[in-house]
Specification:
Elements: H1 5-15, H2 25-45, H3 50-73, H4 75-85
Helix pairs in contact: 1-2, 2-3, 2-4, 3-4
Subunit structure: Part of the 30S ribosomal subunit. Forms a bridge to the 50S subunit in the 70S ribosome, contacting the 23S rRNA.
Protein name: Small ribosomal subunit protein uS15
GO molecular function: rRNA binding; structural constituent of ribosome
Length: 89
């Protein structure tokens, strides 16, 4: 599923609190997770697409940085977003 304006607004509404709250850490993590899952599916079909692979690695790093920030700032918010998105076991 592509990232349309409506999908992006729905992600931020669900995780960021409001559609226009695009700066919330939880919303950004959810958006990155959506994009990561899309790129992963693309790379399963196109194994030699190295530009997409590089973009995926950069996105994973950005999400990791945001998760580390949230973990240090508010551990309860970190635990809730990880549980919602299913990032850890």
């Amino acid at each position: 599923m592509y990232l349309t304006k409506e999908v992006k607004a729905e992600i931020f509404k669900k995780h960021g609190g409001a559609e226009n709250n695009t700066g919330s850490t939880e919303g950004q993590i959810a958006l990155f997770t959506h994009r990561i899952s899309h790129l992963t599916g693309h790379l399963k079909k196109n194994r030699k697409d190295f530009n997409t692979e590089r973009a995926l690695v950069k996105l994973v790093g950005k999400r990791r940085s945001l998760l580390d920030y949230l973990k240090n700032k508010d551990i309860e918010r970190y635990r809730s977003i990880v549980k919602e998105l299913g990032l850890r076991k």
